[in-house]
Amino acid sequence: MLRLLLLCGALVCGADQAAPLAFTMLQRTRVFQGSSIFWGNASLDGRLSHLLEGFNVMQVLPLEPPDAWARRQKDVITYLQHFSELVKLFNKERPINYTQSLCCHLGCHLFPNGTVHSFYEVTLNGTAFLSFHVPNATWERHWPGGDAVATFAERELMKYPETTRDLQHFLNTTCVGILRAQSAWTGKQHSRSRTPLVLGLIVGSFALLGMAVGIFLYTGGSC
């Protein structure tokens, strides 16, 4: 029994050591009768790092100095306000009396052997809608029905550097850089990491995605 316990303990320890560092973000948008509701969060290595509630964005972990975070926070609020105003405009032209729910899940993993994995997945009303193929900075459709909606959104997203090259850079470089700094901080360094967190860029990508979907849905598909 002692040998079995020691073996199990060794396996658990090995699993913990092999577990990757992760920085993940989850952002949800609900649109109903011209109103937009936002909420979400970000986690760094299992610890809550950011919170989004309505137009209020909070930095839970001190990943950025106060002055840098204040600028980032302002950018995020501006993006959300623009999206909210856009939804109101669409609703006046073509009202929709049912709820649309958009969810974006993205982030990166850094494995002990140095390899990385980044992802960006989007669901619409609880169904897989789009995903971002990081290596070649392209969007892929997953929508089972109403293919024209996903096609339009994909086409719109491919037009902007914010949702192609910039997003690829964030996921491959900035996001992974945050994890590498975190790994160095917990292993060799004793000073807090000051790696810039370009959260405003990502929420800007959310807004562009919502815009692409919203334009199609609120104009009845006349693209």
From TrEMBL:
<keyword id="KW-0812">Transmembrane</keyword>
<feature type="signal peptide">
    <location>
        <begin position="1"/>
        <end position="18"/>
    </location>
</feature>
<protein>
    <submittedName>
        <fullName>EPCR protein</fullName>
    </submittedName>
</protein>
<feature type="transmembrane region" description="Helical">
    <location>
        <begin position="197"/>
        <end position="218"/>
    </location>
</feature>
<dbReference type="InterPro" id="IPR011162">
    <property type="entry name" value="MHC_I/II-like_Ag-recog"/>
</dbReference>
<dbReference type="GO" id="GO:0005615">
    <property type="term" value="C:extracellular space"/>
</dbReference>
<keyword id="KW-0732">Signal</keyword>
<dbReference type="InterPro" id="IPR037055">
    <property type="entry name" value="MHC_I-like_Ag-recog_sf"/>
</dbReference>
<keyword id="KW-0325">Glycoprotein</keyword>
<dbReference type="GO" id="GO:0050819">
    <property type="term" value="P:negative regulation of coagulation"/>
</dbReference>
<dbReference type="GO" id="GO:0038023">
    <property type="term" value="F:signaling receptor activity"/>
</dbReference>
<keyword id="KW-0472">Membrane</keyword>
<keyword id="KW-1133">Transmembrane helix</keyword>
<dbReference type="InterPro" id="IPR015669">
    <property type="entry name" value="Endothetial_C_recpt"/>
</dbReference>
